[in-house]
Amino acid sequence: MFYAVKGKGAFLNGRSLNVSKTPKLANSLIVTGFPYDLDKRSEKILGLFDKMTTASQGIRRLGSAALDLCYIAAGRFDGYWEFGLKPWDTAAGVLIVTEAGGKVTTLDGGPFHFMDSGEILASNSKIHKGMQKTLLIKQ
User: Fold this and answer.
1) Contact, 117 vs 84, CB < 8 A?
2) How far apart are the first and last CA of the chain?
């Protein structure tokens, strides 16, 4: 069971979690998901998927934003981005990532707000700017 306590850390079955130490996007394993309305904006979403695939070591897709964020916290993945999320997809995972030493923002680096943003960028913090740069390249 993944959990976190604000100001006290993130844990998996009682063991403390820490994000990965991978320093470069080129060496990173990334995770993402596709929004339910992919058919309406597939060109943009798949274009970003392509860009991140070539900028990183590889990409995985698990199908659960909550689990993706927990895996960032556990150091199993180095970065994560997705569109079309709801507060229940991210609320617990954002706390878990930040308590494990990671960073969570919008794609442009702004503060992530559960109610205002359907997009998320989470990372070990070391590759955050590299992910932002890659994801914000004009299509």
Assistant:
1) no
2) 39
Residue type, 129: K
One-letter amino acid for residue 32 of the chain: T
Q: Are 92 and 100 in contact (CB under 8 A)?
A: no
Spatial CA neighbour of 61 closest among 27, 39, 43, 38: 38
Q: What is the CA radius of gyration of the chain?
A: 14
pLDDT of residue 113: 87
Helix runs in 26-64, H state only: 42-55
What stretches in the chain show pLDDT beneath 70? 37-38, 117, 137-139
88-105 burial code (b ≥16 CB/10 A, e <16): ebbeebbbbbbbbbbbbb
Which residue ranges form the domains of the chain, and what is each CATH number? Answer: 25-135 (3.40.190.80)
**How far is residue 93 from each of residues 38, 57, 81, 131, measured CA to CA in Å?**
23, 23, 13, 19
Strands (E), the chain: 2-5, 9-12, 15-16, 29-32, 58-61, 79-82, 103-105, 120-123
